[in-house]
């Protein structure tokens, strides 16, 4: 009974917004997004989670439209959305817009961020941006076997502490780490793990001050907005989409 | 043989008419702006008035009054229309004509500034949001400045994030008609051995501007004067030695470096990196704008990044660079806009 | 949230944006990377000697070298095309004999036994069924071979290297190196080629790649080219050389298509598309062993079946239309014959004929059914009875086909111009639909559909004029 209630409050309340983005979540308990750089084996993870339903490609920018799939875990129906692989969410290319809008307006229950373990510095660019938008995420260190072959290992506990989200090591092509990934996703979705995501600190001090000023103003106007700081940064960057969302009222979707 | 003749004629006519049609279309398209006087007077009055105001404004900034005959001589429209235009401009209180001199009124000056504002905003827009080549910006803006309404210009200003300078380094006048004074001096007068930075590159006349962009000079670049003669000037910028005639060079405005600024001695372009060499990125030139700049930043071409040239494609273009353990290929015209400092390491590739 | 509050917030943001300066974006990205570098430094554990990417380096040095890069690419491409065209022959024949020789008579029999009226039977079995099964048997085998091989190379990481090698060539015509890949994909299927342009992340170059993809001879058109080249070009020389000449001709037509791709890319980038944003970046991912079985399975599902399904959806109504025009009579003449008589003069102007033009008009959905439709229309126009009376068909031997076409008044000129027109005409409706899906713009879809067919008319017209100078 309690479990049912928990689910009523966690996933379905956002179904109207998801429907607007073209996702039907009528029968799903949780909606989970899959994000990551191109060439990180994102689609392999997708296939490992859902079964063979989508092509995996060693090519940047393969999935421009979203691919959807689903799986069951502990009597929960889980809907998985594969977002286009992007290096960032700051430019205005079509695929970045799709990925950004889904994480921002679709508010998935969990965002899995796939990272190439041998190239984490470069991949963290996207990770840090996603963590500014959502506070429910799991980092999946994929291609661990390849990294180890090249003498690179990752201290996942330190990484988890630094980022404030759970980190799971995987090697999707060898089907290693997938069960751990599934159970971690579940724990985050059910709020058994509460994330305290990293916030970008590297801005210059004057810029930081201005961001804080705008952030404060946004929070005053929109109390309870989870990603006000990120919105502040986007407004300072003259992001036309965000300005438009503010003007036409789509922005209110971000609340609650 | 004679039976084939009609076909021969057919073919000739067809090819001829297609060629003529295409070239007429091309010429009209290319010169649509200068051909505007063919249109009825009421359609061109606005743009000619605005061009005159701009011209007057430019002259006024250096001298007080303008010779009427000189100004009217430069106008390439029939005499009758000229009179009509000057008459209506006087009536609207934009200019004052006394004796043979023309003077811009305050209203006229504000009007001129608002046109300059639209022109520079549109150039900024073209540079940031479209893929038009630099050499086309001026002409496109020259036509657009007469079409955009004040409200549209303000929307554009907001959309662009309230820019202060156009892509050539010219200040954009505010909506109230205020403009930051230009403080640069021409590169021509600078003595040998001095260091300075480029703050403005004039985009008119076009032929001169083309020569400057060919050298990939950009605003913000540091320069060091090597020789300064009467007819030419030799200087160094980003590891390249550049020689320009005085006529061309006088379109480049510079500012001497202040005491806090250090001339970047080792700053060179990424395109000069050779296979196996390592370098640290110092920054991306301001000439790299809009989507191109954002893409490079996202890929990690940012200040402080260490990279190496791993291999080159056929004809040495594109080239594959390794940074943060990833191989990314860039074209040479992009690499010319990324500034680096080479690292002195052995050639075995270990850092 | 009240409206003036929003405006107030936006004004405040604009004011701060002025304060923060124009370099905020750079500053932000630098800030993120600074954080990233710090975190990476704390968490990366390097064991032993770094720099163990020797295999990758060596392979790259060979695959992108001046000496071996191009020969390897050409070799691999030839092998793929050969495997596709040769390898598809047998399964195609098998499918055709199953659908057309075995199942079709059975269906006819079944239809007559349950007492379907002749028109319904004709409409469904001779129209809809025949067209769809034709498309399946011609299209499925080459795609089922071509796409998985392509996908395997893609997964291995070779294709980005091809784009790297060819970029300087494509750059000259204002295009992106990756267009080399979408172009080759077009040799399999234009619709798939258009979808593949998603790998090009620069708006201008992507549009160029989409619009020019139709100049890649797709596998629905290869058989037409081969058949016509054999009948009209191959017979120009002694029998021993005929197949060689025919092959050279077909390759020549495909290369002509490449030429048109470059030319139109260059023109587009300098005119219509010069204002579109253009960027370049090409990641060369590490080589990875592809997962063969997964790839075979998923590329079959993702590419082959989806494209095939789209083609069938469009082919079915076309089959119905084709059957109807040849079986509905007005004043003793079928609609098809009326139309042929009406446009024949127009066709002759381009060295073609009414039959060919009508066939291309009704076979917009799939290039695969152009030849069967041409044969059917020729028979009905010549008023022959027997095989193919109002039904699409293909003849078993090339000699019979040649005899029929010659009887229909075809000359060498008709053959040459049909080959050119087959290269230069509007994309099939599956591709047109895909172009719309990808560009979301009616303007570009219309342009990409009409530009090639106008070009085709121009080229065939000029060829005809030149031809008549000498004959």
How is this structure best described in words?
The complex is a heterotrimer of chains A (256), B (351) and C (471). Chain A has helices at 2-10, 15-20, 42-50, 94-105, 120-133, 144-149, 156-163, 178-189, 205-221, 228-236, 240-248, and strands at residues 30-36, 67-73, 76-82, 110-116, 137-142, 152-154, 167-169. By secondary structure, chain A is an alpha/beta fold. In chain A, strands 2-3-1-4-5-7 form a 6-stranded mixed beta sheet, sandwiched between helices. Chain A is globular and about 50 Å long. Chain B is globular, with a radius of gyration of 26 Å. Chain B folds into 4 domains: 2-30; 34-104, Winged helix-like DNA-binding domain superfamily/Winged helix DNA-binding domain (Arc Repressor Mutant, subunit A, Orthogonal Bundle), CATH 1.10.10; 185-256, Ferrous iron transport protein A (FeoA) (SH3 type barrels, Roll), CATH 2.30.30.90; 267-342, Ferrous iron transport protein A (FeoA) (SH3 type barrels, Roll), CATH 2.30.30.90. Chain B is α+β, with helices and mostly antiparallel strands. In chain B, a hairpin with a 2-residue loop joins β13 (319-323) and β14. Chain C is 75% helix and 2% strand. Chain C has a two-stranded antiparallel ribbon. In chain C, β3 (329-330) and β4 form a beta hairpin. The longest helix of chain C is centred in the N-terminal third of the chain and has 45 residues, at 69-113. The radius of gyration of chain C is 27 Å and the shape is globular. The model of chain C has no long low-confidence stretch (mean pLDDT 86). Chains in contact: A-B, A-C, B-C. The interface between A and C is large, with 69 and 61 residues. β14 of chain B pairs antiparallel with β2 of chain C.
Helix share of residues of chain B? 25-40%
Look at the structure and give the mean pLDDT of chain B. Answer: 81
CATH topology of the largest domain in chain B: SH3 type barrels
The number of helical segments of chain C is: 19
Question: Biggest sheet of chain C: strands side by side, in what order?
Answer: 3-4
Oligomer: heterotrimer
Identify the biggest protein-protein contact and residues per side: A-C, 69 and 61 residues
The gross shape of chain C turns out to be globular
Radius of gyration of chain C: 27 Å
Low-confidence parts of chain C lasting 5 or more residues at pLDDT below 50? none
Question: Order of strands side by side in the largest beta sheet of chain B?
Answer: 4-9-5-6-7-8
Low-confidence stretches of chain B: 1-5, 347-351
CATH architecture of the largest domain in chain B: Roll
